[in-house]
Amino acid sequence: MILYNITFTVSNDIEDDFVQWMKDTHIPDVFATGLFIEHRFFRLLNSPDDSVTNYSVQFFAESTKKLIEYESRFANGLRYETQARYGEKAMPFRTLMESVD
After folding, report:
1. CATH value at residue 76
2. Are 41 and 27 in contact (CB under 8 A)?
3. Where are the alpha helices (DSSP H) in the chain?
4. pLDDT at 48 over 90
5. Which domain does 7 fall in, by range?
């Protein structure tokens, strides 16, 4: 199992819009690629900066092959949509993790 995690640092002045857009548009668009089997959306509780809030979006793939397909076919377009909408007010940090059984 592969976990594709995106942590966003979100400016508080766009936070409500960001959360709603993630729930209604971005997360469904990523999940609609058919390359992930599960997703989760979290707000981090321990932010050291009161002017921002951190959110983690997690997508679970069955294999690295599925993640590579996502990266090659869909990632750039979906990243562009987020960047175009929020610019530097929602800065992403991406990590990949593999389940250790």
Report:
1. 3.30.70.100
2. yes
3. 15-21, 27-31, 64-70, 76-86
4. no
5. 2-98
